[in-house]
Design a protein that fits this description.
The complex is a heterotrimer of chains A (75), B (368) and C (339). In chain A, 27% of the residues lie in helices and 40% in strands. With 75 residues, chain A is of the alpha+beta class. Chain A has one domain (5-74): SH3 type barrels (Roll), CATH 2.30.30.140. In chain A, strands 3-2-1-4-5 form a five-stranded antiparallel β-sheet, with no helix packed on it. Chain A is elongated. Helix content of chain B is 37%, strand content 16%. Chain B is α/β, with parallel strands linked by helices and 368 residues long. Chain B has a five-stranded parallel β-sheet. Chain B has a four-stranded parallel β-sheet with strand order 4-3-5-6, with helices on both faces. Chain B starts with 8 loop residues before the first helix and ends with a helix. Chain B has helices at residues 9-24, 37-45, 71-81, 104-107, 120-129, 146-158, 173-182, 195-201, 207-213, 224-240, 259-268, 316-320, 344-347, 352-364; strands at residues 30-34, 56-60, 86-90, 114-116, 134-139, 164-168, 190-194, 216-220, 245-247, 269-276, 280-289. In chain C, 30% of the residues lie in helices and 24% in strands. In chain C, β2 and β3 (69-70) form a beta hairpin. The radius of gyration of chain C is 21 Å and the shape is globular. The chains are: A alpha+beta (75), B alpha/beta (368), C alpha+beta (339). Chain A binds chain B through residues 1-4, 6, 22, 29, 31-32, 34, 43, 45-48, 50-54, 57-58, 60-62, 65-73, and chain B through 2, 5-6, 8, 10-11, 13-15, 17-18, 36-39, 63-65, 91, 118-122, 141-142, 144-145, 147-148, 151, 154-155, 194-197, 199-200, 222, 225, 250-252, 254, 257-258, 260-261, 264.
Chain lengths: 75, 368, 339
């Protein structure tokens, strides 16, 4: 139901685009992410981009995870 | 395996440590329910259940669209697949769901024409490529998936692909969650809310849980660290005593979600009363095609249906409500197992009963 | 070498067209003295010393031509590898094709050339063959059925019964390449860096067995993937399997395909990888011997065997996130999912 993965948008026109993850590309519909630009990360489910990945929020999460990780490594 | 920060062992250890401490301080048993099949998958896939603190229990609710698809829908899908010049396209998830007779997978051996697709657009392409064939897409799934079906429909309308139809069966979450929290037998301290449904709906949709029912919820993602973050936030909420809705999946979930997607869905679909396996009819929880799109509605095609068969003794409904654990169902591992599933909870590989069969029976010794 | 334009029913009829197919395509491609006699049965030289090993296999793959191979090479490697997994040196293969009327000559030629190339790479000879043609609609393009005869040299005994707790599990390279290639093709995923791993294991196995490492058992994880092999082994050895997710070699493209379609690399077919059970003390020796061979350059240890314990799952994986996950056998096909 919720199997969606972040992929980078490498091509787009108004409705269709191509997204990539780990060297695998697929044609997708970008009708639901009109503001996504080439280079942005979009969340892809069943051949559609259903939302955009907020780079700042992602960075915050990664930073938090890094802090936990570093703290554990120091122990 | 490639290094993935969202599964990083050290970050996991750190988060789990904090979770353990937060749970210890509470010194009471906490039960959280996740309502998304993908969360069930993630928890099982990373082996998370065993890593939870002793007083934190994660249970699965009706979050698996496959599990809650009623027998009648499958019977109709099968009957359509046997019609001449017709092919039924479906997500892989539905292939082994039991109907009154056989599953779609078994029916192929009898001549049913069934194709698995990754995207509804692939089914649309099949319709384009085969103008003499009637292509029927089995429209199941929750809010994450509904826009993808509406999108394929929009394309079919724009390009006048008249041989592409849907068998409507989509469901929405809030109504069934109301049924859950309204149930006096349900003892749940909070919900792990579906991360990708929330991408479409926005997390504010779940405010009613806290406002009207005093139950907390946290929207979480699906990587191991996401799930633990979600449970940690739920424990903290339980500790501070005032129910609320939180979001730890900010990288893709916002308060308002994807309004444009909801508008497109609304153009083609309207709410309907829908049967959920084990719950009966949940008013307003389904989506049916608006009358002006009835030409796309495969449920209007006349087919012979078998008398509906509901297995005697199946307690899927109680399992889905979180009222009983799978081994308490008389059919669990006594005729009902992942290879020969009777109820829907055993069908999806991480439906509650299947997940229990595969993982938990070892710990408890329940089942063979 | 010449293939017909299109396969006709008459090509399987035994008459002039069949003879033409054999003489103008199969024999020139598969080129060896036994095949060229074109007798009803291939009478072979005496077997080298040791115990004979015999295997049979059937090959149905859609699409018949894919990145990294085709039905032809797949069928030859698959058969030779089966023998190698039993500790046998593969010698002679039979190769029978069931063709659907109307199949294009180009596809047929690709498969035949593929088989020829594979036979040479695997060090085997295709000494007998057959062709049948079924009417259009009664087949699915090209099916191949093989038999393979080899010899297990004296003193060699490869079997799951030898596996003991503490034994290490090695894999000769990244898993799931073949399965991911086929599924990517089926579902419109474009992955230029991805191709089937189909290839010969014969040389690799000889190098390993010649190293002196105490090799208990060998398996190639074809249909059903690594997880299926592990379950078979627990049944026969009486031990349980403990894998380490962190150590599993998975190409990033395979990981991408699996993430997109909701699949598990452990459940996807490999067609050129060996799983090796070896005594713990000989792991370094085995790794060195395998990595020295081109087909085993990426060999890694992925787990170990443990004492079976009642009430514990037979196959378990320690997850990267730090948890433990029982690995169950697949129920039916492994299907792309949205949930």
């Amino acid at each position: 139901m919720c199997l969606a993965i972040p992929m980078v948008l490498i091509e787009r026109d108004e409705f269709q685009g191509v997204a990539e993850i780990d060297g695998v590309r697929r044609q997708i519909s970008v009708m639901y992410v009109p503001e996504a630009e080439v280079g942005d990360y979009v969340l892809v489910h069943a051949g559609f981009a259903i939302g955009q990945v907020d780079a700042d929020e992602a960075a915050k999460t990664l930073e938090m995870l890094r802090e936990y990780s570093d703290a554990m490594v120091e122990l | 395996m490639t290094a993935d920060p969202y599964s990083d062992p050290a970050a996991m250890a750190g988060l789990l440590g904090e979770l353990r401490q937060a749970a210890e301080n509470l010194d009471r048993r906490l039960t959280f329910m996740e309502v998304c099949g993908t969360h069930t998958h993630s928890v099982a896939g990373a082996g998370l259940r065993r890593l939870m603190p002793d007083n934190v229990r994660l249970i699965s609710g009706p979050g698996c669209p496959v599990c809650v698809t009623p027998v009648d829908y499958l019977d109709r899908a099968l009957a359509l697949a046997m019609l001449p010049d017709t092919v039924v396209c479906t997500f892989g998830d539905l292939m082994r769901v039991p109907s009154s007779t056989v599953s779609l997978e078994r029916a192929r051996a009898d001549g049913a024409r069934v194709e698995i697709v990754y995207s509804p657009r692939d089914a649309l392409q099949m319709a384009r490529d085969n103008p003499g064939l009637r292509v029927i897409f089995l429209a199941v799934g929750f809010e994450t998936t509904i826009p993808t079906i509406a999108g394929a429909l929009a394309e079919a309308e724009a390009d006048e692909v008249s041989n592409f139809l849907l068998l409507p069966g989509n469901k929405t979450m809030p109504e069934v969650m109301k049924v859950l929290v309204d149930d006096p037998d349900l003892e749940v301290d909070g919900f792990l809310l579906p991360g990708h449904v929330s991408v479409i709906t926005g997390w504010k949709l779940f405010d009613f849980l806290a406002d009207d029912f005093g139950v907390s919820g946290v929207v979480a993602g699906f990587m191991p660290t996401d799930v633990v973050q979600g449970v940690l936030a739920l424990v903290r909420q339980a500790a501070n005593g005032s129910p609320g809705i939180g979001n730890v999946y900010g990288r893709v979930v916002t308060a308002d979600g994807n309004r444009h997607a909801r508008e497109i869905v609304d153009r083609y679909f309207e709410p309907s009363d829908e049967i959920w396996r084990g719950f009966g009819t949940v008013p307003g929880s389904g989506l049916t095609l608006r009358p002006q799109y009835s030409h796309r509605d495969a449920s209007r095609i006349t087919v012979d249906l078998p008398p509906p068969f509901e297995p005697v003794g199946c307690r899927c409904g109680d399992v889905l409500r979180g009222v009983i654990d799978p081994p308490e169902c008389p059919l669990f591992d006594a005729g009902c197992d992942p290879d020969t599933p009777i109820g829907a909870c055993m069908v999806s590989s991480e439906g509650t009963c299947a997940a229990w069969y595969r993982h938990e029976r070892w710990a408890t010794g329940a089942g063979s | 070498m010449r293939a017909p334009d299109r396969v006709l029913l008459a090509h399987g009829g035994g008459g002039r067209l069949t003879r033409q197919l054999v003489e103008e395509l199969f024999v020139p491609a598969l080129r060896n003295p036994h095949l060229e006699t074109l007798t009803d049965a291939a009478v072979l030289p005496e077997m080298p010393p040791g115990r004979p090993a015999l295997t049979t296999d059937a090959f149905v793959v859609d699409p018949p031509v894919f990145a990294g191979g085709d039905l032809g090479c797949l069928s030859i490697y698959g058969t030779a590898n089966d023998l190698a997994m039993g500790g046998a040196r593969p010698l002679w293969l039979t190769w029978a094709l069931i063709l659907e009327e109307g199949v294009g000559g180009e596809l047929l030629e690709t498969c035949v050339r593929g088989a020829a190339r594979a036979a040479e790479a695997a060090g085997v000879m295709v000494v007998a063959g057959d062709t049948k043609v079924v009417p259009r609609g009664k087949g699915d393009g090209v099916f191949a059925v093989t038999a393979g005869l080899g010899v297990v040299p004296p003193g060699r005994d490869i079997s799951d019964a030898h596996i003991r707790p503490g034994d290490a599990i090695l894999v000769s390279g990244p898993i799931g390449d073949h399965g991911a290639t086929i599924l990517a093709h089926r579902h419109g995923l474009d992955a230029p860096g991805l191709q089937s791993d189909c290839g010969p294991l014969t040389g690799l196995v000889e190098a390993l067995l010649g190293s002196g490492a105490a090799v208990r058992s060998l398996h190639d994880p074809t249909r059903g993937g690594v997880v299926t092999v592990c379950h078979e082994v627990t049944g026969r050895s009486g031990c349980r399997v403990l894998l380490s997710e962190e150590d599993l070699p998975v190409r990033r493209e395979v990981s991408g395909v699996c993430d997109l379609l909701g699949l598990d690399p452990l459940a996807l077919a490999c067609e050129g990888r060996a799983l090796v059970w070896v005594a713990a003390e000989d792991v370094e020796c085995a790794l060195e011997a395998m990595r020295d061979h081109p087909a085993g350059a990426e060999t890694v240890a992925i787990g170990r065997m443990e004492e079976a314990a009642a009430g514990t799952p037979p196959v378990v994986m320690k997850t990267t996130a730090g948890g433990e996950r029982p690995l169950d056998l697949l129920s039916g096909l492994d299907l792309p999912r949205i949930c």
